[in-house]
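User: Please fill in residues for this 242-position structure.
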């Protein structure tokens, strides 16, 4: 019998998009102008590509999500630029917190809010998320904005736990906080490598949600592939009837 459900954040609860990219880019060039640094858009694009590849390598091979400060450091090193500490810190903070000023900002997957509120009547809910450049502190703000944060008993973000999915620690920590054994829980996510493999690796059930992103990687078989929150609710109803 299922007691707990955990959710990925991006492309599971919220639609993933480059919401903050224009704000980050604008602040970056404002700092360059302040210090009379002449850098082209193409040079910044190339440096950010190096930062992105460095970030992805750590995520995939070290099971961690590097901070915004690490991203900024790699990017500036690639550009051979050193900013004063106060400006470096401000830039790193912008890369984390500018998501809060994005317009439009992160939007929920269709049906997510209504389903989450109904599921709290039957299950203990949690979030297991890799945080990216925006920290868990920032991502919580959108759950507060959308009046969903109280629906979740535990929020586990990789920058706070210290490991990213599919590392088992982030799943076990969440299950412990939810008071559920792995066989009593199901994880909902969009990525096979992190969500499905991570959940199945600790003995949880796993559902791949394709409502906003359909992962081409099918190396690990989930317990179900569902296209919407309506389908998820029906799947859970069927599970309760078994």
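Assistant: Residues filled in for all 242 positions:
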């Amino acid at each position: 019998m299922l007691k707990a459900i955990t959710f990925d954040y991006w492309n599971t609860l919220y639609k993933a998009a480059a919401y903050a990219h224009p704000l980050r880019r604008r602040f970056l060039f404002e700092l360059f102008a302040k210090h009379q640094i002449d850098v082209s858009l193409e040079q910044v694009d190339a440096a950010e590509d190096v930062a992105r590849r460095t970030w992805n390598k750590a995520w995939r091979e070290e099971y961690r999500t590097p901070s915004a400060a690490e991203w900024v450091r790699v990017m500036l090193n690639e550009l051979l630029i050193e900013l004063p500490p106060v400006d470096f810190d401000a830039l790193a903070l912008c890369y984390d917190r500018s998501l809060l000023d994005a317009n439009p900002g992160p939007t929920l997957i269709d049906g997510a809010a209504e389903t989450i509120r109904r599921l709290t009547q039957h299950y203990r809910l949690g979030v297991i998320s890799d945080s990216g450049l925006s920290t868990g502190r920032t991502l919580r703000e959108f759950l507060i904005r959308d009046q969903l944060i109280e629906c979740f008993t535990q929020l586990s973000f990789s920058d706070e736990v210290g490991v990213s999915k599919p590392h088992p620690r982030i799943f076990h920590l969440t299950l412990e906080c939810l008071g559920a054994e792995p066989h009593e829980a199901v994880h909902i996510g969009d990525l096979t490598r992190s969500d499905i493999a991570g959940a199945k690796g600790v003995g949880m059930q796993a559902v791949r949600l394709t409502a906003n992103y359909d992962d081409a990687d099918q190396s690990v078989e989930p317990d179900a592939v569902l296209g919407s929150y309506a389908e998820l609710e029906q799947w859970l109803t069927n599970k309760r009837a078994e």
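For context: The chain has a mean pLDDT of 97.
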